[in-house]
Each structure stands twice: as C-alpha cells, then as structure tokens.
Structure to design on (131 residues):
C-alpha cells in the first residue's frame, strides 16, 4: 500500500514519525512524507526508503498560520494546495495525518480520493489548547 504521511513541520528530526515510517516500510508499505520546507538546508532522511517531499513555505507564514490554524484556515489551504496534486501523482492509497493543526485535510482528502485516513495525535493536544 502507498501511504502518505503528512507532517506540519520540517523533517527530520521527528523520532515518532521516523519510527512509524520504519515500521510501515518494514511491513511492506511504500511510505511517502509530505512536509513544509522552511528554507533551511534539509538533512538527509534517517529512514531508508522513505520518500520525503518538501514543499516551500515561508517561515513567518508557518509561525503565524500555524498559531491560528484552528480559527483561520490559511494553514489548511496551503496543505490542501500541495496535498491534492501529490496524492494524485503518487497514487496514494491511505493518508496518515500528524497532529491536530492539519486534521481537516484528512477527511477532505479521504472523500476526494476515496481513500482511508488516520489522524495521529502524538500528545493530548486538544487538552493543551484548553489551557
């Protein structure tokens, strides 16, 4: 199965994403990772056979739009603009969305492409937002 993990920050590093990608690859899946590129020279992926696709995003936009993500849909629009052609071109069969900030893209893409999706919350982010 071709799985696209979507991460709302540059990669690497992210040990949780790395471990999940290793497990999926070891299980025989083809794993892609779509993430923003904030202009820093990217380090090579620490996960062999992980197809990392970085899309340019201005650092001030990442900071501001990410902070307002639950009220103003600018962040969603950026990810949607990059996710749609990538899913189509790579014939992605499932989405693995990381973190709440981009959660709305999961059901949208699932309906649009007829594929399953999962939202992976690495921490209790909704509870932390209440505080």
């Amino acid at each position: 199965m071709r799985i696209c993990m979507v991460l709302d920050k540059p990669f690497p590093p992210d040990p949780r994403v790395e471990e999940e990608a290793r497990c999926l690859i070891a299980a025989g899946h083809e794993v892609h990772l779509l993430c923003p590129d904030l202009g820093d020279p990217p380090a090579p992926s620490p996960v062999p056979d992980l197809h990392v696709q970085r899309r340019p995003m201005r650092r001030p936009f990442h900071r501001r739009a990410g902070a307002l993500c639950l009220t103003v849909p600018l962040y969603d629009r950026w990810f949607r603009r990059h996710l749609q052609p990538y899913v189509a071109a790579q014939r992605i069969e499932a989405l693995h969305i990381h973190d709440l900030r981009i959660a709305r893209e999961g059901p949208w893409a699932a309906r649009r492409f007829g594929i399953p999706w999962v939202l992976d919350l690495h921490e209790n982010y909704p509870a932390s937002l209440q505080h």
About this structure: The chain has a mean pLDDT of 84. The helical segments are 15-26, 59-67, 74-90, 105-113, 125-130. The two ends are 39 Å apart (CA to CA). The chain is about 40% helix and 20% strand.
